[in-house]
Structures are given as structure tokens and as C-alpha cells.
Amino acid sequence: MNMINVDVAVIGGGTAGLGAYRAAKAHSESVVIIEGGPYGTTCARVGCMPSKLLIAAAESVHQIKKAPGFGIHPQGETIINGVEVMARVKRERDR
């Protein structure tokens, strides 16, 4: 069994754990975070934030369809590329 000595060990990579890690790093370089799964909150990874980005994409299409009522006439077919939409969601989540 390998052992390391650190000033601070933060257990959990959710909201509180990530905040505690940042705060500890401001005072010491000898800090570790212990997490058995993905870092970040459920909200940021798979819940609220990704859902809101998908809703924003849908709202964009809805606004394009409503545009003629404002005298704006988009030309051509509106194409929704699901791969690009999800790539944006993943980029924003990871950022």
C-alpha cells in the first residue's frame, strides 16, 4: 500500500469538495482530492446545465420559426445537427 503525506485531503469532487480544494490550494501546494467517480456536480455533469443547453438549442430553432412574424425571413432549410448540439453541450460541461 502506497502512502502519501499531504497537508489537506479533500474527500469528494462535488461542489463543496471542489470549492474546498481551491481554498486549500490557496494556502498549500500539498493538497489532494479523493474522488471515486467523475469530478463535478450532478447538476453540471448530467442535470441542470446540460438540460438548459439543450433547451437553449431548441429555443434557437423556435425563434427562427417565429422570425417571419417580425419581418425577418431566414432563407433555406433549418438543419439541426444533433452531433454538433451534443458536442457543444459536452464542451460547455467540460469547461
Describe the model:
The chain is mainly α. Helix content is 49%, strand content 8%. It has helices spanning 15-25, 42-45, 48-66, 82-94, and strands spanning 8-11, 31-34. The protein has a two-stranded parallel sheet. Strand 1, helix 1 and strand 2 (31-34) form a beta-alpha-beta unit. Helix 3 crosses helix 4. The radius of gyration is 21 Å and the shape is elongated.
Topology, element by element:
Blueprint: E1 8-11, H1 15-25, E2 31-34, H2 42-45, H3 48-66, H4 82-94
What helical percentage do the residues reach?
A: 40-55%
H/E element order: EHEHHH
CA distance, first residue to last residue: 34 Å
Poorly predicted regions: none
Number of strands: 2
Per DSSP, the total helix count is 4
Strand order of the largest sheet: 1-2
Mean pLDDT: 91
Question: Which features characterize this protein?
Answer:
about 100 residues, single chain, 4 helices, elongated, mainly alpha, 2 strands
Summarize the structure.
The protein has helices at 15-25, 42-45, 48-66, 82-94; strands at 8-11, 31-34. With 95 residues, it is mainly alpha-helical. The longest helix has 19 residues, at 48-66.
